[in-house]
Design brief:
68 residues; 11466_t:CDS:1; single chain; mainly alpha
Length: 68
């Protein structure tokens, strides 16, 4: 829950920064598109990380069962 709240706060302030730092709607659109690509890559990497973590835990549990 804490990470979700922090993400929402960060997104809010990032939006505020983009509104202040850009002078045209074209600049805002370009910045938002760049950010969307960035967050998409993060989401994909996170899901792959979760899958690898679960696989590691399964292997670890299996090794523990076999060892006694």
């Amino acid at each position: 829950m804490r990470n979700h709240s922090l993400s929402l706060v960060n997104a809010y302030y990032l939006g505020q920064l983009i509104d202040v730092a850009t002078t045209s709607s074209a600049q805002r659109t370009l910045q938002m598109a760049t950010l969307m690509k960035h967050y998409y890559r993060i989401a994909i990497r996170f899901s792959k990380y979760q899958a690898l973590l679960l696989k590691t835990l399964d292997i670890s549990a299996g090794a523990k069962i076999l060892s006694g």
